[in-house]
Design goal:
Strand order of the largest sheet: 3-2-4-5-1-12-13-16
Largest sheet: 8 strands, mixed
Number of helices: 7
Low-confidence stretches: none
Helix content: 10-25%
Shape: globular
CATH class: Alpha Beta
Strand content: 25-35%
Order of helices and strands: EHEHEEHHEHEEEEEHHEEEEEE
Oligomer: single chain
Organism: Virgisporangium aliadipatigenens
CATH superfamily: Class I glutamine amidotransferase (GATase) domain
Pfam families: Peptidase_S51
Number of domains: 1
Number of strands: 16
GO molecular function, one term: serine-type peptidase activity
GO biological process, one term: proteolysis
Family: Belongs to the peptidase S51 family.
Radius of gyration: 16 Å
Amino acid sequence: MIFLYGGGRDASVYREVYDPFLAALPPSATVAFVVVDSVADGLERWIAAVGAAGSVPVLVPPGGTLDVAALGDADALFIGGGLTPAYADAIVPVAAELRTWLDGRVYAGFSAGAAIAASAALVGGWRSGGFEICPEDSAEDLDELTVRDGLGLVPTTIDVHATQWGNLTRLMAAVREGRVPHGIALDEHTAVSWSPDGTATVLGRGYAHLVTPGLNVVSHAGGSSFSVAT
């Protein structure tokens, strides 16, 4: 199973969004936590927020590449947030090896970790052809809308911080322009769990906004399920 989180740091919501992830794991499971950063603060924050029985912290420095062997025999993988292009640089080059490691395990991605889970990963940008498509603060240090190869774990593109950062319109632009066939923009404090049969179930307080061709947008609230035609 796959869990994709749209961001958010309100501790009062943590149990609501992270407990379903923990419930998908064996008892007393160990989770490998991966953060791309120069300091370990983010690792400590996500380990505390998720509350797994055991943890394997893996810090990948900017410019480095994830060593899949460092994940050991953990029961699940949780990839944290930060600058999305940096996560793509560090983790997508080992996508095939990582997919092999994930066989029979559970994946969770928060913000950047959610965005790179897609086959076609929307990693940033705030303009398309010079026209603004979302706030500049959402750019991820990129100017033009940028779609790159992702991990190939889910067949639809993911954008995050949808309502809070105005990123729904960025995903709409990517679909409108044919850069991606469809996608889901996740609000903060909201997640989708992705089942092997392709069903997405919404968790948390916000919405998962499904964008399909023709710029059809359907916003799914927590507790609802939907599927994406591929």
